[in-house]
Design brief:
The complex is a heterodimer.
Chain A lengths: L20 E3 L7 H7 L2 E2 L3 E3 L14 E3 L21 E2 L7 E4 L4 E6 L4 E7 L6 E9 L3 E2 L12 E5 L2 E7 L5 E13 L2 E13 L6 H14 L1 H17 L3 E4 L2 H15 L26 H14 L1 H12 L2 H10 L22 E3 L5 E3 L2 H4 L2 H17 L2 H5 L3 H14 L1 E2 L5 E2 L17 H21 L2 H13 L4 E2 L4 E2 L23 H5 L1 H5 L9 H7 L8 H9 L10 H11 L3 H12 L16 H15 L3 E2 L4 E3 L9 E8 L2 E8 L2 E6 L3 E5 L4 E4 L3 E5 L10
Parallel strand pairs in A: 23-27
Antiparallel strand pairs in A: 1-6, 2-3, 3-4, 5-10, 6-7, 7-8, 8-9, 9-14, 11-12, 12-13, 13-14, 15-24, 16-17, 18-19, 20-21, 22-23, 24-25, 25-26, 26-29, 27-28
Helix pairs in contact in A: 4-20, 5-6, 5-9, 5-20, 6-9, 9-11, 9-12, 11-12, 12-13, 16-18, 18-19, 18-20, 19-20
Chain B lengths: L2 E5 L6 H15 L2 E7 L5 H9 L4 E4 L3 H9 L4 E7 L12 H9 L4 E4 L12 E5 L4 H11 L8 E8 L13 H14 L5 E6 L2 H11 L4 E6 L9 H9 L4 E5 L4
The chains are: A alpha+beta, B alpha/beta.
Chain lengths: 697, 251
Amino acid sequence: MSATVDPPSRISEIDEDPTWVVPLPDDLALERVGEAIGAIGNGHAGIRASLEEDGPGSGPLFAVNGIYDGEPVPRLLEGPVWTGLAVRDGSRRGRRLDLRTGVLVRHDDDSGVRTIQLVSAARPHALALRAEGPVDRLDVADPFAAAPPTAERVRRGDVDLAWTAAPGGGGIAVGVRDRVEVVGARRVVERIGAWAAGPSGPPDLDEVVARLDELAEAGFDRLYAEHRAAWAERWASAEVAIDGAPDDELAARFALFHLLACAPEEGEAAVGPRGLTGHAYGGHVFWDADVYVLPALAAMRPAAARAMLEYRIRRLPAARAAAAALGLRGARFPWESATDGTDVTPRQLVGLDGVPVPVRTAEQEEHIVADVAWAADAYARWTGDATFLAGPGRSLVVETAEYWASRVRLDDDGRAHIEGVMGPDEYHEAVDDNAFTNVMARWNLRRGAALLEEEGDHDRAAAWRRLADRLVDGWDPERGRHEQFAGYWDLEPLRADRLGTRPFAAPLVLGRERVAGSQIIKQPDVVMLHHLVPEELPPGSLAADVAFYEPRTSHGSSLSPAIYAAVLARAGQPDRALAAWRLAARLDLDDLTGTTASGVHLATMGGVWQALVHGFLGMRPHPDHLSLDPCLPTAWRGLTVRLRFQGQLVAVRARHDAVTVECEQPLALRVAGGPTVTCAPPCQRFPVAPPAERSTR
Amino acid sequence: MTIVLAALDSSAAARPVLETAISVAAITGSTVRAVHVREDGHEVPAALARAREVPLRELEGPVEEGLLHELGADEVIIGVIGARGTPAGARPVGHIALHVVERVAKPVVVVPPEALEVPARPTRLLVPLEGTEACAEPVVALLQPLLADDVDLVVVHVLTATTAPPMVDHPDWGLEHWSAEFLARHLPDAADLRIRTGPVGAEILQAAADAAVDAIVLCWSQDASPGHAAVVRTVLEHAPMPIFLLPAGPR
């Protein structure tokens, strides 16, 4: 008698390496958190990690980059969720996100159902799902069961199509074709899908069907293999390894995974604060994209960073109109934007106990104008793409500088001021001469002047430089530190570190007015300058500014801890930096804010990468060299980061006593403030002194 | 058939207790039964029950044990008891009522004597939640299944240093997202969420007034010893409306 042997599973195993695999929570209360954490995407489109059979507490979403509804305050348009299956007696257990290969897998021992989902990293419009389970537990069902109620449906032959379209907004269509097979006692469902989308009206269904036909010809296994290869390629220029801290390593890779999945490499990329992993902030584009996310992509996926800048470039007409509407010159980028580049910041939102609260960020957070310019420059520094700032990116720097040139007010003493603004610290509204805004504007004017000089426009360049020199920057030579804005020193001298366990949202605990009248701040403001434009600040001022402002920071913004991690490392305090870094790196994995359900915090993730690179490695891209100055926490034996610098792959492997640099071509390098040397490929080792033996920066 | 049990005594609280029991029965599809433990005469309970055509069971013996026995009957789903004898009573809850609510494993509605305007059919209940699973679970498990669909639960969450969201990225957008998840996680069928700051007990009372609710629902650990249940005591002392007390923790 021959024994019956089950055929091998059609669901591929993943490498269960705990530094690459994120288990999703199986607690019903954390259902939506898991959906955000486990979201998968390719930059063009993304889907949350909802159970295939949907169910209570679920918040499914399929969204496409840059596709919004048509409301006055637009939100990401909900496309047809395409992963519906009938799973009987399923559970939430056994779901994992494989960071290495970009797939969402489910090994549900309760039902015996296994699934694997992917949004192809190789083919922008390809979607795929394979499921396998006992015939009485798994069956095909309405693939669009979890699609929004507004979705329209049609079946063409063996293709199920669904689409959503918003009046005055965009449209998203998805088509799927199922292949069902019964193998012994198991049913295998193989679903291949394709999508199409457009910013106005319903998309062309014929296009979806044509794409689906092409994908069906390739088949699931080929799509899966291509997808894995594409992710391997992404990771090849985005490696991060932390020796001696596997939990930190997983958290870092988790951040990088979502960064790598948040923007396409073609066209334009509208990267909202939560990417395509949730609805939060309507998917609007804030400074989060320019200052937090873009630098990481510029060094890991330069084409995606370029697409993010293309989003800004194509909205220059709206930015020019916004400046002109205020009687000013140049380009004024909006605090929040969506499809057309006009400001879509809500003017009023519901605050405590349902009381309407006016929102002033649109009028006052003007620093975004310089932030956009800074992002363009950061892209150019990482990529070495000299043609960008001389060509398509020029206006992002020059026209923003022109805006500041028309925005500042000169007083009778010839000093220049910017009044009525809000810095990154949103606890203090309508302040004058916010150091962050003024210094970023000064940097913007000087960078714009440099571009004008290259073009031979020396007179205007000189005028901008003079204006830049006149801008007050809050530097207080007597105190040896910067004043955050005019009058800050006179505020109630409350310290956040003495009020309770940080982080805390200070206005919710103390009340808005009390906080506004105090020195408590939400996030790095002056300190943010040390992170973004350290060359603009007096040498040696970092330590004094950090020492003063950190205790006053409530870290009530998810943007705060990672930046402090970076500057604390630069200030020679790597162990304190690590504590801050872990807060940022675990923010979504542990749902520290209680809002991960509405999407992962991409800006925090960008900050996590920046803290590793700029903070712990002390790496800075310069036009003619790369500088390094590692400063590792004692809990880490080593830190390795691989990225792209000026066209070549560079790996930096830092340990406490040395740093090894791998490069493909000779690389101009400056280590720990020493002279510029040429690092010879394939690698070279440089000894470094421990932080304690180095002077404070 | 399910029963809402009204514990009537001869005090000024008896009438509000009976009226509340009738209104609670209206939204739970139950009938009302009254019980009186003879202690200080039975004329008042008997007259009230007769007037509202509610069957009255009169008992002899220790009051507390008698009430607990009656509340323990399987068909009794909710008990209704008077908070104290007079509006100016020295304590928020009389000692018998307190001992009963500390020991019974069912929802008990505590009615202040001044709650004279009890609606025939309550439509809005205020549910203060502190944001823990233990706090919301009794509402979901014990109360919600009993209530008719047309009863709205309005949640109030009073932010304190320990319960406020640690980070709110945008001054108001962020609170919106946090609030949505708070409701989804703790009481997804609630009609509304009010977020307030300040002393918890006082803010619950103010929220009840602002939201024009008919009653307040409080989960508690059934421990009223000194140093415990400060919020429950404050609400019992000052709320002019019935308060549903739901036992939290293992049952």
